[in-house]
Design goal:
Structural class: alpha/beta
Oligomer: single chain
Largest sheet: 7 strands, mixed
Shape: globular
CATH class of the largest domain: Alpha Beta
CATH superfamily of the largest domain: Aldolase class I
Number of helices: 14
Helix content: 25-40%
Mean pLDDT: 92
Length: 419
């Protein structure tokens, strides 16, 4: 029987790390077990490298990394160390950064297999003997057919996420995004697929009964994309769980809300909705191809508030076409919404996004890795540290930082209330 070890790298750039289960790898781990392979997941946010290398003595055939842009070089360093000590182990890399930059020279020199897109079918091919270097997966259609994470063997006590004092986990109920915002990599996989409400409830019930989970964060990009699905899920939640016993949260877009929907999700236990509002200027929203207006965004926030739902708004300083005046529009807009929580970031273009592929079109220049380390490609790091990775046509670095500070000084800024 072939064996595979999944490795979640340490999130060194975060103040708070390891409170969330590495869901993508946990799903792959359980999928491999379903196929009959020996599989294990090690999370280096909790386990150290000594523990990892002790496990490697168990003669694993494959080691698979989840690679994000900020942790890329850490993954490369660790993979090379494994290669040196265990040259017969095949090394696999997947995750956002590999999907976005599959032809990167260092990746091709370091790993035996590179996975682009959903990992399940690619891992199945590799464990079945496929020796292809680059495997591009088609989006999985039937998400209900995938097993839940193997919670029994994931040491759930290590993860201390909570919502309003309730022990919580992240769940994903859909994959993909049909929208094409120029700063976002999610649009690369435009096909949206979703789990059924019944399947979601089955997993929630398992977590509720067996692990005392009372909080759920639905980490979908556009959770409310299909109203009927969400309304049915809300009905099932109210039928299956005592009223006010669970709390849940989600992320969506302001134009994917109705007043009826807001009332329904609030009645089913949703206390906070996160909205990517980005800008308070219609011209900037148009240039970022969000297909949104300031008025629609304001209405979305108002509908949530009317239903008793708190709102966290996310904003970006330095978007295409941004000027000092449009950034002030954003600050004034954010302040006028009476958001319970808000956060703002300086624009950070990521690989494969339209901004990355054609920055000149959008009036920016990007400091790419020949000038800057991949580890600096995050929106906020330890102690609130920011790196500015762009040269903006209208705003210099000092102005971008000043505008960000002004936002944080004048708008009620705060994180969600999970640890």
């Amino acid at each position: 029987m072939k064996s595979i070890l999944f490795v979640n790298p340490e999130d060194k750039f975060l103040d708070k790390k390891g409170d969330r289960l590495p869901l993508g790898l946990a799903l792959l781990d359980s999928y491999c077990k379903k196929l009959g392979y020996n599989s294990k997941l090690i999370d280096l946010n909790h386990d150290n490298e000594e523990y990892l290398f002790e496990n490697l003595k168990n003669n694993y055939d494959y080691v698979c990394f989840s690679v994000s842009t900020p942790n890329y070089f850490d993954c490369i360093k660790l993979a090379k160390k494994i290669r040196e000590l265990y040259p017969n182990i095949k090394l696999i890399a997947g995750g956002n950064h590999i999907t976005d930059m599959p032809t990167e020279k260092t990746s091709n020199e370091t790993f035996d297999h590179l996975v682009v897109g959903d990992g399940e079918e690619a891992i199945k091919k590799i464990l079945g003997g496929d020796e292809t270097k680059l495997i591009i997966s088609k989006p999985i259609e039937d998400l209900d057919a995938l097993p839940f994470p193997d919670y029994d063997n994931l040491n759930m006590g290590k993860y201390d996420m909570d919502l309003n004092g309730k022990k919580a986990v992240v769940m994903v109920t859909s994959r993909g995004c049909v929208f094409s915002c120029v700063y976002c990599g999610s649009a690369k996989i435009k096909k949206w697929r979703a789990r059924s409400p019944e399947n979601i409830i089955k997993e929630m019930r398992l977590l509720y009964d067996k692990f005392d989970i009372r909080g759920f964060y639905f980490g979908d990009d556009i959770f409310t994309f299909k109203f009927d699905r969400v309304l049915k899920l809300c009905n099932l939640i109210t039928e299956n769980f005592p009223k006010k016993d669970i709390t849940w949260r989600c992320t969506t877009r302001a134009n994917l809300l109705t007043q009826e929907l807001c009332y329904s999700i609030r009645n089913a236990g949703c206390d906070i909705v996160s909205l990517g509002l980005e800008s308070g200027n219609d011209e900037v929203l148009k240039k970022m191809e969000k297909y949104m207006t300031v008025d629609i965004q304001r209405k979305g926030v108002e509908m949530c508030h009317k239903a008793g739902i708190k709102v966290k708004g996310f904003f970006i300083i330095g978007l295409p076409g941004e000027t000092w005046e449009t950034a002030i529009d954003t600050i004034n807009f954010a302040r006028s919404l009476n958001l319970e929580y808000a956060d703002a970031y300086i624009l950070t273009p990521y690989p494969s996004t339209p901004l990355w592929e054609d920055p000149e079109k959008y009036g920016i220049q990007i400091m790419k890795p020949e000038n800057s380390d991949w580890s600096k490609y995050f929106q906020v790091g330890k102690g609130g540290e920011y790196y500015v990775n762009i040269d903006h046509s209208n705003l210099n670095e000092d102005q971008l930082r000043e505008l960000l500070k002004k936002f944080k000084d004048e708008v009620k800024v705060g994180g969600l209330t999970y640890k």
